[in-house]
Amino acid sequence: MTVTSTAPEIHTELDALRDAMRRLIAREMTPHYADWERAGAIPRELWRTMGAAGLLCTSIPEAYGGPGAGLAHARVVIEGLADAFVALPGFYTHSEIIAPYILKYGTEQQKQTWLPRCVTGDCVLSIAMTEPGAGSDLRGARTVARRDGDDYVISGQKTFITNGLHADLVIVLAGTEGMSPGRKSLFLVETNRSGFSRGRVLDKLGQRAQDTVELFFDETRIPATNLLGVEGEGLGYLMAQLPRERLFVGMSAIAGAEAAFREALAYTNTRHAFGQPISQFQHLRFRLAELKTKITVARAFLDQCIARFEAGQLSVDEAAMCKYWITDVEAEVLDQCVQMHGGYGFMRDYPVARAYADARGQRIYAGTNEIMKEIIARNL
To answer: Hey, what domains does the chain have and what are their CATH numbers?
Structure first.
């Protein structure tokens, strides 16, 4: 599967991938999803199941075991999960956010060692940036990497780490001795290293099946060859890759909004009051019309941003607009869809109730929407 295929071939590939995604969700995820929400995590083997189906790391080149596909293939996976109300952002975080760091900044040895295993699901990735005292301003991160001969020794704590429970490899942001607070580095840390440990699986409002954990590094020793890229350039690498991450959050958000709207439309057409479907009342009809319009505009804006990204033209402020605007639209859509369901919208038995909670985090991670507005304002 390559991006050099003609348009009809690409559509055939995408249709096949979409069908595979739907079948896998129906067979492997939906029947067990409530149990995973209660457990706070998915089973480790599900990663290999996704890999075997060709649903991980779709943009990784064939030289490293991937299909070398474009964003359209990744979008099928992201939107397939959202469409089924399966809130597992760790899959696209692994595939389309973290693996590209290794692809772009890794040595040939690092790429050959890790990327093929990421494609198959034999290696699960997480990225550890946020700390208890450092979120939006990562210059304040206190984790440090001390050079000791041919090794680095890492000490510190990270929190809110997606995929941390099952991760085999963590990209860790840490300061290095002798450099200013604004000069951080990225390190590849295998989770079987001495001094590495996991803390709590955090109890979240939404996305409850997606593990989010604390990570601890207590004099964790790694070889100097585990440095990712150039020492001191870590924050620059993060800033360069964040527009891509924000684009994927937008993909998930618009698909979530569309799925919730579909549920609300079906519910209002079948729920009767005063002798008619409630969708026939003018207030609801107008509200549905407004939501449909906003979803359509958001989808068009996302498509424009994706096209500009693939052309190498998407700016940092445009990516911020995409992330903040579409997640805000999703929040409005979900709030109104819950309201349209009345009391049932407050019950977790109904998909819109779970989706309402699941979506809330999207206005926080990948940079809060307030930070997105700051980025936009700086570029006016």
So the answer is: 8-123 (1.10.540.10), 126-232 (2.40.110.10), 235-378 (1.20.140.10)
**Residue of 13, 245, 263, 318 with catalytic role:** 245
Distance, CA of 349 to chain centre: 25
Whether residue 50 contacts residue 120, with contact meaning beta carbons closer than 8 Å, is answered with no
Ranges assigned E (strand) in 224-370: 227-228, 272-273, 276-277
pLDDT at 7: 62
Report residue 48: phi and psi, to 5°. -70, -35
CA 179 – CA 232 distance, rounded (Å): 7
Phi-psi region of 130 (alpha: psi -120 to 50; beta: other; left: phi over 0): beta
DSSP 131: B
Is residue 166 over pLDDT 90?
yes
For residue range 281-292, list pLDDT tens digits in order. Answer: 999 999 999 999
Give the pLDDT mean for 21-31: 98
79 flagged as catalytic: no
